[in-house]
């Protein structure tokens, strides 16, 4: 089994939507998956039909001196969700006062990995470099750095370090955009860890969160869903070599 972290090089590149979509694709391929929201934004739950007003999550439980495992939620027989939980306004303004209290989650996630109950633990990571985010990155076996082909991400790829060994995944690539095509060609030459697949711009990606579903459940026939399924097979081949990749549907 593997712990796979997904982290945007900045906010707004679609990391949360890709994390939920990849979790769905892996369970479609027969894998047991736990998807964990490591971000205080607490948005991942919205892709799994969790009500907007739902406050519970692993971090909320720890801060309230309760067992974080009780925050787990079942989505399908092979896909479980662990939301972050809702922070108060004061907590959001003063993260230094509570982040150290969350350290027990790392031992818990490592124990889940050792138990072998899940084939994959996917982490939706914040794009920041706070101490707690670095701890999340450190427990990952593999990481995917999510980017958009825009000038902002291009600059960030040159001035901020990616997690060691991270592969780069391009999301939201627009067919017909000259700038994006130019940046993509530059990255093909300069970014050695660029993944061989791309997630193209697809309205279904924007619609699926509004429908409170992972992409592949909402629109399995969409281009982006097929590309995410290709990504899932790539992960099986490269991050879990004992697995046999399953062919994408025609």
Q: Span from first to last CA?
A: 28 Å
Output the number of helix runs.
Answer: 10
- Measured by DSSP, the beta-strand proportion falls in 15-25%
- So what's the overall shape? globular
Indicate the percent of residues in helices.
25-40%
Q: Could you tell me the number of beta strands?
A: 8
Structural class: alpha/beta
Spans of at least 5 consecutive residues with low confidence: 241-250
Order of helices and strands: EHEHEEHHEHEHEHEHHH
Order of neighbouring strands in the sheet with most strands:
3-4-2-5-1-6-7-8
Radius of gyration, CA atoms, in whole angstroms: 17 Å
**Largest sheet properties:** 8 strands, mixed
Mean pLDDT across the residues is 94
Give a written overview of the molecule.
The structure is a single chain. The radius of gyration is 17 Å and the shape is globular. Strands 3-4-2-5-1-6-7-8 form an eight-stranded mixed beta sheet, with helices on both faces. By secondary structure, it is an alpha/beta fold. It has ten helices and eight strands. The longest helix is centred in the C-terminal third of the chain and has 17 residues, at 223-239. It is 39% helix and 19% strand. It has helices at residues 15-28, 58-63, 89-93, 104-115, 131-139, 151-159, 178-190, 203-210, 215-218, 223-239; strands spanning 2-8, 33-37, 73-76, 79-82, 120-125, 142-148, 167-173, 194-200. The model is unreliable at 241-250 (pLDDT under 50). Strand 6, helix 6 (151-159) and strand 7 form a beta-alpha-beta unit.
SSE blueprint:
Blueprint: E1 2-8, H1 15-28, E2 33-37, H2 58-63, E3 73-76, E4 79-82, H3 89-93, H4 104-115, E5 120-125, H5 131-139, E6 142-148, H6 151-159, E7 167-173, H7 178-190, E8 194-200, H8 203-210, H9 215-218, H10 223-239
Parallel strand pairs: 1-5, 1-6, 2-4, 2-5, 6-7, 7-8
Antiparallel strand pairs: 3-4
Helix pairs in contact: 1-10
């Amino acid at each position: 089994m593997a712990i796979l972290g997904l982290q945007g090089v900045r906010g707004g590149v679609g990391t949360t939507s890709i994390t939920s979509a990849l979790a769905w694709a892996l369970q479609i391929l027969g894998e047991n998956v736990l998807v964990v929201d490591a971000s205080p934004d607490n948005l991942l739950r919205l892709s799994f039909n969790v009500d907007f007003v739902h406050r519970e999550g692993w971090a909320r439980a720890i801060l309230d001196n309760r067992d974080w495992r009780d925050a787990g939620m079942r989505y399908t027989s092979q896909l479980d969700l662990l939301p972050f939980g809702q922070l108060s306004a004061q907590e959001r303004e003063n993260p230094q006062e509570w982040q150290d209290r969350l350290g027990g989650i790392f031992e818990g996630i490592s124990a889940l990995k050792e138990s072998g109950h899940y084939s994959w633990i996917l982490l939706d990571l914040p794009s920041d470099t706070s101490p707690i985010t670095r701890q999340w990155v450190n427990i990952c076996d593999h990481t995917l750095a999510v980017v958009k082909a825009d000038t902002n991400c291009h600059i960030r790829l040159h001035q901020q370090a990616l997690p060691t060994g991270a592969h780069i995944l391009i999301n939201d690539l627009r067919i017909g955009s000259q700038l994006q095509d130019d940046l993509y060609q530059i990255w093909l030459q300069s970014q050695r860890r660029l993944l061989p697949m791309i997630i193209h711009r697809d309205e279904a990606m924007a619609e699926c969160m509004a429908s409170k579903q992972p992409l592949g459940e909402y629109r399995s026939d969409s281009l982006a869903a097929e590309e995410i399924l290709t990504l899932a097979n790539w992960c099986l081949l490269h991050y879990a070599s004992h697995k046999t990749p399953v062919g994408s549907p025609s």
